[in-house]
Fold these 4 entries.
Entry 1:
Amino acid sequence: MKSATGAIARFDSPDHLMSAIRTLREAGFSEIEAYTPFPIHGIDEALGRQRSKLPWVVLVGGLFGAISGYLVQWYLSVVEYPLIVGGKPYDSREAWIPITFEMTILFAAFSAIGGMFLFNRLPRLHHPLFDVPTFSRATNDGFFLTVRIFEVPQDRQAISELLASCGGHDVTTLDMED
Amino acid sequence: MSEIHVPARPGGRVALVQGGQTFGSLTNLVSGITEASTPKWWWPAFLTSLTVLSVGVGMAAYLISTGIGVWGLNSPVGWAFDITNFVFWIGIGHAGTLISAILFLFRQKWRTSINRFAEAMTLFAVACAGIYPLIHLGRVWLMWWLFPAPNANAIYPNFRSPLMWDVAAVSTYAIVSLLFWYVGLIPDLATLRDRAAPGLRQRIYGFFALGWRGAARHWQHYEMAYLLLAGIATPLVISVHTIVSMDFATSILPGWHATIFPPYFVAGAVFSGFAMVLTLMVPSRVIFGLENIVTTRHLENICKILLATGLMVGYAYSTEFFIAWYGGNPYERFTFMNRAFGPYGWAYWVMVTCNVLSPQIFWFKKARTTPWIMFVISIFVNIGMWFERFVIIVTSLHRDFLPSSWGMFVPTWVDIFEFIGTFGLFFTLFLIFVRFVPIVALSEVKAVLSDQNHEMQHVERAAS
C-alpha cells in the first residue's frame, strides 16, 4: 500500500459533479473517484470504467448450484441408497429439476452478493475518507470527487483552484491509499 | 421553440416525489423516523403484538409437547389450518418480491417508495409461514431429516416428493429475500451511520453498513448485483408458489389434481400480497408523514394491480368449475358442487365475494384514490384469500372418492390461537422494522428525484 496525497471536493448536484469529472479528465487526471448518495447515470463512462464483471461470477455460481444440486439428488437416489418410492425409477430425472432450479438460484444469489462485496473490498468498517469532516454528506446530499495529486505535477494550490472553479466546495487535501 | 421530447410528467402523470423535496429533505424525512424519540403509540402496539406472539409460542409449545392431535386435524382432513395458514402467509410474501424484482426489471420507478416496506413484509410473512410446516411435523426435532444428511437409518430424503421441493423452494426464497433486502439497505444504513453522533448508535449502524461510502466503483458493482438479484428473484418467486401448488397438484385428489394450479396460485399470491401491502401502507404513510413519497399515484397503481390479479383469480375459479363439468370426471364434478353447495359452501361464497366481487370497485377512480376504501377492500381481500386456501384444502379433503371415508373439520381453540399468534409475530417484527430501519429505500427515491429534476429542467429549457 503506497500513500499519496489527494484532494477532495464536494459538489451540489450530479450535474456539477459530472462536469467536474469531464474537466479533470481533460486536464489529464485519471485516478478520479466519485462518492454519491445514489448511483448516477453515465458516471462509469465519464470515469472511463468498464462494465462490471459481476455477471461472470454469478454465472459460475449459478452453474455450480445447478450441477451440484442435480448431482446430490442423483447420487443419493441412484448410487448411495437406491430406493423405489411410489413405483418411480431410481433416476427420476424430471423430479430432480425443481430442487436443481432452486439451488441454481440460491448459489447465484450467494455469488452475486459475495462477488459484489469482493469487488468493492467490503466490509471495511473504517476508511481514511471518513476522517474528512464534510464527507458524511456523501450519503445525504453531497456529491464528492477525489483526485490524486501526484499524477500531474501541479501544486496543491492549483488543484484546489481547479476543483473550486468547477463548482467544488469544502476543498481539502487528504492522504489517499490503495 | 423546439419540441418537448421528455415531458415533465410522462404520459401526463403526476410526479412520483412531491412537495418540493430536495435530496437533503428526503434524508431528513426518512432518517428522521428512526431518529425521533419513540412515538407514543409504539410501545402499546409493540407490547400488544408481543403478547399475541407469546400466545402463539404457547400454542406451539403445547402442540409440540402434546402432539398434533390438539389441532382439529383428523382422517380424512389431515391438512387444514396449518397448511392453509402456511400458504396464506407465503402468498402474502410474494408481493414484496414482485415489487422489488419484477417491477424493477420493468423499470417501474414508482416501486422505489414502497419496495423496502414490501420486502420487509415478505420476510416477516415468510417467517410466519415457516412456522407451520415445522410444527406440523409433530416431532420438530427431526426436522433435519428434510436435509440431505444421513440420518440414523442412513436413508436420504425422497427428492421425488413435492414436499421436498417445497423445503428447497421456501428456504431458498427466505434466504434470497433476506439478502436482497439487506443489500438494498446498505446505502441507507450508511446514511443513518453518517447522521448519528459518535456512540453506540453510530457503531451499530456502522457495523451493518459494512463501511459503505458510495464510491462510483461501489455503485457500479452494487447496481449490477441488484440487477442480477432482481433477475434471479423473478423466476424464484414464480417457482416458489408453483412448487407450493404442486404440493397439491401432484396428488390424485379431485379438487387438487389440476394443471391450472401453478399459475392460479401465483396470481393468488400476488393478489393477496398486494392487499397486505395496502393494509399496511395506507395507515403507515399517514403515521410517518410519507404522503409526498408514497403518493396517491402509488396507491392507485397498487389498486390497479389488485383489480388485475383479482380478475385473474376470478377467471381461475370459473375455469376450475368449467373443467370440472367439461372434463366429465364424476368425482371432480362432485367435488366442485360440494365446494360451492356442500357443508363448507359458505366459505366458498365468502371467498368469491371478497376476492372476485369486492375488488371490482377499483374500476372507479374515486375508489382507487380514496385511502379508506382501499383499506376496507384490502381487508376483504386478505380474508378472501385466507378462505381460498381453506376452501381448496379442506373441502377437497373432507369428501373424496369414498363416502365411507368422508368427514368434517372443525378447528380447535389451539388452531385458532396459533393462527392469531402468527399475526403477533408478523406485527412484532414489523414494529421493530419501522422503528430501527429506514422504511423507504432512500437512495433509490433520490435517484428518482434526480431523474425528475432533469425532466423538469429539460421542459423549462425547451419552454424558454
Entry 2:
Amino acid sequence: MLNSRILSLEEAAASIPDKSVITMGGFGVFLQPMAMVREMIRQGKKDISLLSVGEAYAGDLLIGGGCVKRIALSSFGFEAVTGRARNFCKAVEQGKVEVEDYSHFSMASRLMAGAMGLPFAAVNSLRGSDLLEKIVYEKKFEKMKSPFSGEEVILLPSANPEIAIIQAQRADSEGNIQVFGPTISIEQQAKASKRVIAIVEEIVPRSTIQSTPSATLLPSLFVDTLVVLPYSAHPMSSYGYYDYDLEHIYTYTNASKTPETWKKYLDEYVYGPSDHFDYLKRIGGLRKIMKLRADPLLGY
Amino acid sequence: MQSKLVSVQDATKTIQSGSKLTIGGNTIRRHPLALVREIIRQGIKDLTLYVWVAGIDVDMLVGAGCVRRVEAAYVGMGPLGLASNVRRAIQEGRIEYEDFSESSMLARLRAAGMGLPFLPTKVLMGTSLADHASHAKPIICPFTGEQLYAVSAAKADVAIMHGYYGDQYGNIQWPLLRDSDDIDTVIAKSADRVIVSVEQIINPQAVLTNSTMTYIPHNWVSAVVETPFGAHPGSCDGIYDPDMKHLEIYSEAAKSDLTFKKYLDEYVFGSAEEFDYLEKAAGLAQLLSLRVNR
Amino acid sequence: MTEYTLNELMAVNVAHQLRDNEMGFIGVGTGGRAFTMAVGLPIVAARLAQLTHAPNFTVQIGTIISPDLKKIPREFTQSTLTSWPTAARIRADDNLDMFVKGKVDVGFISGAQIDQYGNLNITAIGNYIKPKVRLVGCLALPEHQAFAQRTFIITDQNSRTFIEKVDFVTGVGWNVNGKTRKDLNLPGGGPTFVFTDLAIFDFNAEGHRMQVASIHPGVTPSEVQEKTGFPLEFPKNIPVTTVPTAEEIRLIHDEIDPENILLKY
C-alpha cells in the first residue's frame, strides 16, 4: 500500500459498489466500522451481501439503513446490553433480507479457508443441526469421508468477500495496521477478501510501528485503502482509545423499536450530520468524547 | 485516602482576592489555563504571582486585570514572542514586577518548600537584577566569608498547576514519555494549598500498580479537577500540541486593551464552562487534530 | 570556491571552537531569527564538531541531555522535542543545580544589548522602572554568564545592540561598574567569543575588553566600527574569518540540516 491510498471516509465509501459482497470487522461492542456504515447509508448503497461473524451493530445499522439484501452470519445480537438486534430481526421477519445461518466457528472457518486460498473448510460441527438442513439460497455444505481416517467431515465453501471493512486503532502511512485488545476474526476477514479498507484512529510514525511489531495484525500488503478518522468506531469501543457509549447504544436500540423512531434516528445521526465531526457533536460533543476516553493503564 | 475531586468552579472559589498564587507549567506548556479562565470569570483580583518561566498563564491574568504584582524569571509566549499584556502593563506602570533569574527564582520557591526564610545564591552578583530586587539582599557567608545574595522565600497561599493524569485522591502521574522542562514539584511544595487540574481522572487501581509515575502525591494536594484540554491553547506534552491557530488569535488580541477585552468577552466570559470555551475556541475537529501520536 | 551562507560561516566558526568531551547548553522556545541564533546555529555547530574534530561533544537542549544529533527533528514542536531520542530528560530544578555546579562547559547565548565587557541585557530597554520596551525577563542568562565554563555570544550586530553600557545587566560579562568577575565572586569562565554577522570578537587579556578576532570576508573594518557603539580594538593585521571547507558545507547540507530548518532565518 502507498501513501496515495489514504482516502477520506467519503471517497473510501464511494469505492464500494452496490451489490458488493462485504465483511466487516469487530464483535460484541468493539471495533466495528460504524462511521463507514453511516457513510454507506448516506451514499445510498443497495443490495449489499454480508459475510458476517458477529459485527452486530455495524450489520444491524447497515440493514436499518436499507443497504442489505443478503446475509450469511453466525449471530447478530446485542448480547448483555440490550438483547435482539431489531433492525436485523425485523428485516428477516418481514422477508426484506435473505439470511443464511452459520455458527461462529463454521463462519470463521469459511473465512480462514478463504484467507488460505483453499476452496473449502472441513469442520466437525454442525452435523445433525438444522443449520445444514434449512438452506435458503446457497449450497452450504458437502459431506466427505476423510481419505485418511475414514470419518465423515462436513465441508463448507470457503468465503472470499469482495471487500473487507476493518476498524483498527492505528497504522503508519504505508498502511501497516495495528489492533489492540481482542482481534477476533479481523485477520481472517481481511486476508480472505479481495480488497481491504481499513479505518484507523490515527496515523503514527513508522518508528512507532517498528518498535511494537507484534501488534501489527495486517501488514501493509494486505491493505488497499486507509481512512484516518478519530472516534470512528463510536458507539463501539476501541481498546486503548475509548470505551463504548452505553448511553448512545440505548438511544440506538430504543429508536430501532418502531419505524417512526428509527427514521428519526437516521435523520438525526446518519443523514443529518454534515460530516463525522458533526456526528460527534450530535452524540454529545467534546463532553461525551472526553468521558469515553480510555483509562491509560486499563485501556478502557 | 479521601476523595479531593471537585469541579473547576468549586476549586477556584477557594482562591481569595489578594492571595499569593504560584502557577505550574512553562511558557505555552501545561499551564492550568482552565483554572486561570475560571479565576478570571470569578473576578478574583489583586493577586501576587510567584512564577518561574511563565507565559500565557500570567499574560492572561494580567490582561484580565486580576494581578497586582508579578515576581518571575520570564514571562513570554515561546515561539510567539513577547507576552503583550504583561509588557504593556509593565511599561505603563500598572503592575509591580520583580525580575529574577531561573535559579534564583527556583531558590525562592525551594526556600518556601523547605520552610526556610531564604536561600543563598551567587547568581545575582553584579547583575542589575540585584539592584532592583526587594527580595534579594547581600550577605557574607558565615563560614567562608564570601559574598552572596540571600533571596527570600516565595511562599504562596495557593499553587495551581495542570497535570497529565490523576486519581480522585489527588495522586498526579506523569506519562512515560514527557518533556520535563518545568518545576511543578517545587511549585507544589512551595504553597500552603495545591489545586491540580488534570487531563484525565484515572482509576486509582492504575495508580497503585504504577506508583513510580506519581510525581505529586495525594497528601500535597487540596483539590483535583478534571479539565480535558485544560492547558489549551497551550500544549500538554505527550497528549496534545499547542493550538497555534488559537495562540495567534490570542497574541493578536493581546496587543491592545480593547482587543483583549473583546477576546475575554468572547472566549472567557462568553463561555459558561470549559467545554463551551473549547467548542468556541477550537472545535472538536481542531482539538482532536492536536493530539499527539502515541 | 565553496559557496556558503552567512549562517553557515558563523556555524562553522562556532564549531571550530568546540572541544571534544565538552557539553554545550542550548536554550529552547524562540522563533524566527532568534531561533536560528539561539537554537539552530548551535545545533549545527555541535553536530559538525561531532562529525569532525570532537566526536564526544554533547549538548543539552533545555532539560534534554545528550539528544541523538543524528536524529535532529524535522520540525521543532512540543511533540517532536518530547519524542527526540535522548540519554536523559531531567527535571528543570535538577538542571539548574547542574548549571550552578559548573557542569555546563559552553553556554550558547544571545542578547538584545551587549556592551564592551560582554555584559548582556534581555530584560528591559531604557529605564528599568518605566521601560521604553519591556522584554521577556531573565531566563537562565544570569546562570550562563555566572557559571558556564565559557559562554559564546551569537547575535546580529548593529550600533543599537552593540553599545557602551547596557541599560540593564541581565548576564554579567567581564566587568560591571569597575568590578571584575573575581570581585563579584563569579565562578564561571565568562564570555569567550562573540560571533556576529560581521565579525568574530574575543576579549583582551588585560582589561577584558571586546576586540576584533577576525572579520568576515567582504566586510571592512570601518563597517564593523560603524555598527559598534564603542571604540573597538583592531589587531595590526586583521585576520579574515576562516571560510567553510567544501566538506563542512557538504556535511551541513547532506547530513545535518538537509531540509534547511536550523539555519533558515
Entry 3:
Amino acid sequence: MLGKNKPLFLLVPALTSLGFLFFGGIIYGVIQSLGLAPLAGDPDFTFAYYLDLLGSFDFWRSFSLTLRIAFISTVLSGLLAIFVLYCLFLIRINSKRDRSVYFQRLFQIPMVFPYIVAAYMIFLIFIQSGWIARILFRTGLITEMSSFPVMTNESFGWGIIIAYVWKTSPFLVLLLYPVILRIEYSWVETARVLGANSFRTFREIVFPIMITPLETGCFIIFAYTFGAYEVPFILGVTYPKVLSVSSYEIYSRGDLSGQPTAMAVNILILLTILMTGFLYSFIRKTHPLKRIVK
Amino acid sequence: MDFHLYIQNLQVKHGEFFGLIGESGCGKTTLLKILAGLLPVNEGSLLQNGRDITGIPAEKRSLGMVFQQDRLFPYMNIEKNVAFGLKMKGVPRSKRITRARDMLSSVGLKDLGERFPLELSGGQRQRVAIARAMVTNPPILLMDEPFSALDPNLRKEMRELVLDIHKKYSMTIIFVTHDREEAFMMFDRMSIMRNGNVVETGTPRSLYEKPSRLYTARFLGIPNILSGRTEKGLFLTLEGLELSMEKHEGEREGELIIRPESLEITQFHPEDRFAFRAILEKTRFRQGMVHCKITTHRGLILETLEKNNGELEGLTGKEVYVSYSPTDLVFLENEREVRECSTLMPEK
Amino acid sequence: MKRVFMLMLFIVFGLFLIAGIFPILYLFMLSFSGGWSWPDILPSEFSLRAWKYVLGTASGTWHSIGVSLHIAVVVTIINAVIAIPAGDALGRYKFPFKGVLEIILMLPILVPPIVILMGLHRTFITLGLTEKLSGVVLAHMLPTLPYMIRATTISFSRLGFEWEEQAKTLGAGRIRRFAHVVFPFLLPGIIVGSALTILISMSQYVITLLIGGGQVITLTMRMFPYINGGDQGTGAAYSILFALVAMGLMVLLDVFLNRLYREKRM
C-alpha cells in the first residue's frame, strides 16, 4: 500500500517531533544571534554579537575552562571505564558462573542519581571540611582543615571533573558491557593457545570491538560536559564561568537585550562540539593515532 | 556432573601422527585441552622432551591448536588472524605479514589475506585456522575434530592437506576424532578412549587385527563378537557353534572376535580350510565389496565382507560353507573385561 | 608476580567500586544526622528532622513527586508511540539517506540541551507552551526520545521479518501480528528505553526550570535550593528520595510491562 516509502512514512512522527524541538530551538537561536529577531527594534543582520564575543578576553577564559573540564572529564571517564571493563572481563573469563553481571550492576548505581545530586555529593565530600578532609585529619595526614586542597568551587574545576567522571563512567560501562558479554570463551581459549595472556587478549580481541562504541560514548560525554549547566553551576566559581552557565545567566537576566549574545554563545558551543567531532574523525583517519586503535 | 579423567601413562613420540579416538563424552577433547594447558591437571604431570610443563599456562606452551569450529577472530582479516600468534611472540610487523602470507599460500589460500572470515567458506576457514596454528612453527600441533563440521568431500581434501603438512614439517600432531575412517587413514598410532580412560594404544592396524580389549573391537566396528568358552583347542559359542583355535587355551570363558573380511563364503567345502555351514540370508553390494549376512543352523547371525566375485548373489537363501583361518580369530577372556569395568567406572 | 599484579588490580577495582557507591552511603548518613561537627567521621547525633520535613505535607514533596511521575510517564508513553515505528524503519528497512536520518535523530543527545533550550524557549513562548506541564513534557522528549529510538531500532533489527511472515501465513492480521509477534519481542528494548527516559526526564533541572518557568515543580526543582547552598541534611534526604522514586518507578515499569506481555501471550 505504501510500498517503497513505508520506512519514510514510519519515520514521520519521529522526524517531525524531534525536528520541531531540535531545529525549532537551534534555528531560532541562529536567527536571534544574527540580530534578525530582536525583541525590540528592527531586525538587522549582523555578526556583531559573535565578533564581540570572539574579541573578548572573558569569553576565551570561559571557553578554555569549559574545554579543559570537558576534555579531562572525557579522558578520565574513558580510561576509568576501560579499566573497569578490563576487570569485568577478567572476572567473566575467570569465574565459572559469570559474576561480572553483579559487579556491572553495582557500577550502574550512580546512574539513578541526577547530575545535581552528583555535584552535591562531590561538594559535600570534597569541601575543606568534608569527609575526605576529615579522614586525612584523623589519620594525621593533614593537621588542619585549611591544609586540605580546595577542590570545590575553585577555578580549575576539579570538583566539576570528579562529579562528571563519577556520573559518566557508569554510562560508558553500561554502553560497553554488552561487548564483554559478546566475547565468547572460545575466543579467549584460542587466543591463549596462540600465546596471548589475559591482558593481550583484552587488548587484541576485546578492545578493537569496543573502540567504535567507546568513541561514540566519549563523544556523547564530551558534548554533554561541554554544554552542561547543572554541575558547574553548583561546583563552579563566579569567575571564570563555563560557557553554558554564563550563557544562561545572560539569557535569564531581566534585561532582554543580552539574549542575542546568549544565543551566540550557544551557537559557538554547538560549533565547537561539531568541530571537535570532525577533527577527531579526521585525525582518526589520517594520523598515526589510527595505529594505536587499530 | 563431575567428570574424571584417568590416564595412567601415555607417550607420544617425536614426529608421530597420534590419534585420540572415542565416542563423544569419552574425555578425548578434555585430554587435548589438558595438553594445551587450557585445563589444569589435578594429579600427575605432563612432560615435553623430558621437561615438566604441567604448571606452564597455555599461552607459554607455544603449541599449535586447531579446534572443531574454525574460531577465527571475526573482525580481523585473514592475514591478521594468521599473524596473531607471531604478534603475541613479538615478531615485527613486516616479518609476520610475510610469514602469514607464506603460510596461507602453503594451505592453498594465497590471495585471500585481505578478506574477512565471514567471506570465506567453511573449508577455507578451517584452512586458515590450520595456517594460524602452524605459523609459529609449533613443535606439536593439537587438532580437536577439526573436520567434523565440514562436508564429507571437503573432509577428504583436508585430511590430505594435514597429512602433507605432517610430512613436510615433520611435526608431532595429536589429533582427536570420533571417526574410525579418519583414524585408519591418518594415524601412526592412536589411543582408544572411554569414560575418561585409555582403553588401548597401538597402531590402527594392530588394534583392528589384534585387539586386546573387547571395547576396541566393538569401537572399531567388528560386528562378529561371539560369547562362549574354549575347550581343547576349540571355541564353543553359546549357540553351540564350534570353531578351531590357533592355540590351546585351556578351559576359559570369553569372547571370540571374528573380523568380517576373514570369513569366506563358498558353495562347497574348501580344501585345507576350516569351515562351518550356514544359510546366506542377505547380500548387499557396496563399493566393490559385498556385505553378507549369514545364519548358522544354530541361529547365530554373522556378517562377512568379501570381494564381489559375482557368485554370491545366486546363493542367497541357500546353504553355504563359511571358511576361516584360526590365526584370524581373536579370543578375549572374560575376566579381563570384568576387571576393566571396575576400573573404568568413574567415581560418582 | 602475576598473582601480585592481579591482586593489585582488584584492589584498585574495589576502590573504584567503593568510590562509586560510597558517596551515596555518605548522603544516607547525612540525611539522618542531627549534628556532625569537624573532624568527626560519623555523625554525632541521630535525627529524623530532615526526613520529617521532606516527607511532611508542608514541604510539597509529595505533590512534586506526582508532577515528576506524571511528566516521566507521559513522556515515556509518547516516546514509545513515536519510537516504535521509527525503530521499525531504521531497524528493518533499507532506504536512501538512512544514515543521515539516523544521525539527525541522534543529534539531540550529541548536542547539549542548553544550546537548543533558549531558542526553544522563545519558540514555546510564541506558541504559549511555557509555564505548562504540556510544554515541559514536549521539552523532555528532546533528551530522551533518541535513546528510545535507539532501543527500538536495535530490537527491530534483531526481529527481522521472518516471524511476522510466519504469522501472516498462519492468518494473523496486522493488529494481531503486532500484539502477538512484534510487541513481545520489542518489550525488552522498550523497557530499557523507558527506564532511560524516566531517569533522564526526572533528572532534568535546567529544561524544566526554563520551560516550566518556575510553575512546574518537579522533585528535582523542589530539591535544588537545598542542594545549592541550603540545608545539607534536607538536600541529602531529597537526593536519597529521588533515587528511591526513580528506582521504584523502573521496577514498576518492568513488572507492569512484563505482566502485559504475559497476558498477551495467553
Entry 4:
Amino acid sequence: MESISVAVFFPFAVAVAVPYFANRHRSIAAWMAMLAPVVSLWALVLLYGEWSAAGRGALLYSFSWVPSAGLDVSFLVDGLSIMWGFLVAGVAFLIVLYSNFYLHEHEDLGRYYGWLIAFMGSMMGVVFADHLLTLFISWELTSVTSFFLIGFWSDREAALYGSQKALLITGGGGLAMLAGFLLLGQATGEWHLSKLIAMSGVAGKVSLAAFVLIILGAATKSAQWPFHIWLPNAMEAPTPISAFLHSATMVKAGIYLLSRFYPILGEHPAWGYIVIGLGMTTMIAGGLLSLRAYDLKAILAYGTISQLGLIVTFLGYGGQEAIIGSTLHLYNHAAAKAAMFMIVGIIDHETGTRDVRLLDHLARRMPRAHILAVLAAISLIGVPPMGGFLTKEMLYGVSIHPGGPGEWAAFWPWLTLAAGIITALYHLRFLGAPFWTPAEGTSPKPGHDPSTGFLAAPAILVALAIAFGVAPGLIEGTFVAPAAEATLGGGGHLEFHLALWHGVNQPLVMSIITVAAAGFLYWKLDWVSGILDAVAEMWKKGPGPNKAYDGAIFILKERTWPLLLSLQDGNLRRYLRWSMTVPALLLLAAALWLDWGEGIWPAFSGATFIGASVCILISISALATALFPGRLPAILALGTAGYAIASLYVVLKAPDLALTQIMIESASIILFLLAFWFLPEIKIIPKPLSRRARDWGIAIFLGASSAAGMALAMNSHNLRTIADYFFLTSKPIAGFQNVVNAIIVDYRGYDTLGEITVLVISGVAIHAMLRIVGTMQDEGEGH
Amino acid sequence: MRSLILRTIAPIVLHLTLIFSLFLLLYGHNQPGGGFIAGLMTAVGIVLQWVTFDADDGWHRYNWPWDRIFSYGLALSACVGLFGLLSGYFLKGSAYEFNLPFIGEVEVLTAFFFDVGVYAVVVAVLLSILTTFCDRRAVIRGAPK
Amino acid sequence: MIWFLSITIGVLVTAGAYLAMQRRLIQMVLGFSLLSHATNLMIVASGWVGDGFSPILRSYKAPDPATYVDPLPQAMVLTAIVISFAVTAFLLVIALMAYRSFETDDIDEMRRLKG
C-alpha cells in the first residue's frame, strides 16, 4: 500500500518543493530533484518484494476517491507495470545526474527540475493506473508536463512551436483515447484494466471506432506515422529532456498502452492490420527521414520514430516470441537511445553545434565519447554482443513465422529486412557524419572529451546495453518474463531462455545480410542521398502531415476571427438581449412540451382580497420603476415594490422572509440614496421607437414566458421536496421549532457557511474597491 | 436633523431595536428570527440612528472596524463547524443541557453559536458597506456633479 | 391566486429585463434588483400551498407535514435576499468606479471612450 503510493505520489511532492529551494540554493537543486527517482526506485524495490512474495500475479491497490461516482484511485501492479516503473525511475535518475553537468548555472533550475520530476510522476501514474480514467488523467498530465519541458527555453520561437505542436498532437490523441475508453467502458461495463484483462472476449464486443480511437491515442504519443511530426520539433528541448522523453518515457507511453491493451484488444480482427501497418510505415519512413537530417538530434529523433515503429510492429505481430522481443527491445532501445542523446548533448556542449556538416573527425578529439557512441549505435544496428542483436534476431524470427494476418506472410520477412537495413544505415550515418568524416565548415569550438562525471550517465547506459546482450539472464527472469506474461494476459509462466548464439539459422543469415548491405550502402552514401533528395524535390509541392498541421493551425488561428467577432463584439446589451431571449424560448419550449391538454393550467380562482391587491401594487410599482424618468422616483418605486413583496411573503406564509425583506429594503433604499448622490441624474437618452419596441418586446416575451412557466409549475404540486423529513425531525433531532431556521443553521449549515462567506467576500471587495483602489487612483491623479 | 422629538426618541428606539434583535437571535429556533434577521435588524437600527442625527457625519460614530468584525463572525461559524468534527462530521449540530442556578434547565444548541457568527457577519457586512459608501464621498466628490 | 402570483412575477421580470437592457448604469442596477425580487418570489411561490400554515411547528409531537408550506424554498430565499443586497451594493460600487473613470454612466459612451 505504502510503497506504491510513495512511488507514484512522492515525485509530485518533490516537484512542488523543488522550485522553492532550487532558486535559492542552486547547488542543491539537482540533489533535491534526485530524491524523487531515488526514493521511487527504493519504493519500487520494496514493491517488487511484495509482489514477488504474492506470487508475481496482478496485485491491486485501491483507494476510494469519489465513492458516490464510483471513482477510485487504484493501482495495478503486475510484471508489465513493475518493469515500466523501474525503466522510468531508473532513466529519470540518470537524466537528473546528467542534467547537473549539462545545464548552465543561470538557467531556471527550479522550473526545469520541477517539471522534469512532475513528468516522471505522471509517467508512474500512467504505468500503474488501473482505472481507465486514472490512466487517461495521467496520460494527459504527461502531455501537459512535457509541453513545459519542450518549451523550457521559452524565448526561442522554435521551442514554442515545438511544444505547442507536441501538446496539440499528443493531447488531442489523448482525447481520442478518452473517447475510445468511454466506448470500451460502455460496451463492456467495466472500467478497470485488471478486470478487462481477466475478461474474455472483450475484443469481440468492442466496435472498430473504439478500437481505432484507443490506437490513435497510442499512435500520437508514440509518434507513429503520420503523427510523428511533433517529435522532430520537440528536439528544441534541452538535450537531457529529449533523452528522457524520447528514450524511455513520453513516446514509450504509447508502447505501454499497446502492451497493456494487447491482452484486451489483441484478438480484435483489425489489430494485426492497423498496428503492423502503422509500425512498418513508421519504421521505414522514420529511417529514410533520418538519412536526410543534418542536425544530430534530428537524426536521432527520426531514428527514435523508426525504432518505435519496430516495437509497434512486434506488438502487431503478437504471439509469445514477438512480445518477448518487444519487451526486451524496450530495454535495449531505452539504454542505447538515452546514451546516444546524452552523447549528442556532450558534443553540443563541447563544440557548440549539432550540425553534422560542421563536425570534423570528432573521433580524434573525443575518443571516449566516440567509443560510447559506437557501442550504443551498434547495439541498435544489431551487432553481437550487444543487446540489440538479440532483439533484431527475434524480429527476423518472428517475421518468418508471423502470428498476425496470414495473407501477407510471404511479404513480411522482406519488408522487415528492408527496415533493418535502413535502421543500420542511419545508425552508421549517425556515427560517421560527426566522428569519422571531414567537415564542410568549422564548429564554433574545437571540442574535446568532457569530464568523467559528464560521461558517467551514458557510460552506465552503454554498460547496461552490453549486459543485456552478454548476460540476458540478468533481466530475463526478473523483468522480461513477468512483463511478457502480463502482456500476454497473465495466464501461466513463460519458459524461455535468451542467448546470443542460436546456431546458424535464417535470422542469423538475415542479420549478416543486414550488416553487409548497410555497410555497402554507407560506402555509397552519396548515391543514396542523391536518390532521397530527388524524391524529396519531386514531392516538395505534394501534401504532407506537417503541411496539414500548419494549415489546420492557420485556419484555427486566423480564419476564425470573423466568427469570433460576430459572436463576441463587446456590446454588453447585445449579450443581455441574447441571454434573455434564449431562456424565454426554453421556457416556452418547456411549456409546449408539457402538452397543452386539459387541466394543466390553474383555474382563475382562490385569490384573497389582500393577496390580489398586494400583487397589483407590486406590478404597478415595478412598472413605475421602469418608466419613471428621474432617479429619486425610481428608487422610491423600487422601495415600494420591495415593501409590497415583503407583505406578499406574509400572504405566502413566510414570516421570516417578510421580516428579512423589510429590513433589507430599508437598507437598500439608504444604499441607493447614498450611491445616487454621486451618480448623475438619469437622462433618458432618446431612442428610436423601433429599438424601444424591440427591448420591450424581448422583456415582455421573457416576462410572459416566466409567468406561464410559473403558473404551470405551481399547478403541479405532485412534486414533494424533502420537506417532510425536515418537519418530522426538526424538533426531536435539531431542537428547532422554526423549521426554516433549522434548515438554515443546521440541516444546510454548509450552505449557510458558504453564503456568509459570500457576504464577507462582497464586503471585502467593496472595501477594497472604494477604500483602497479609490484612494490610490486619487493619489495617482495628484488631485 | 433638527427635530427635537426625533432626537429625543431616537436613542430609546435604538435600544429597543437592539433588545428586540437580541430577542430575535435568541428565539430564532422557535419563532421567526435567527441570525440573519437579527443581524439585519441591528444593522438597520444603527443606520436609522445615524440618518436621524446627521446624514452627513453621523456615520463617524459608527465607523467601527467592521471588516475585522465580519472576519471574526465568519471564523466563529467555521469554528462551530470544526467543533462538529469532534462528534462526527463537519458542522454536526449537538445540544447540551445545563442546570444553571436561578434560571433552571437551559438547553444550548451548538447551532446557536453558528447563528451568532451569522449575526456578526450580517451586521458587520451591512455596516461596512454603508460606512464605506459614506467614507468614500471625499474621493468621489472629485467626479463632476 | 396562482395566476395573480404568476402575472406579478411576469411583470417584475418584464420591468427588470427592460431596465437591464438600457444604456445607463443606474437603470441596469435597478433592473437587476427587480430581477432578483422576481427570482426570490418565484422560488418561494413554488413551495406555497394554498391553505398551508407557515413552517413553524404548532405541536411538538407528530406534526403533519402536509398542513404546512414547504420550508426549503423559504430557507434558500432568506439567504438569497441578504446576498442580493450585497450583490446590489457591489454592482453600485462598480457603477461608481466606472463613472469616476469615464465621467459618464452611459455604457455605449464608455465603449466609445475605451476605443
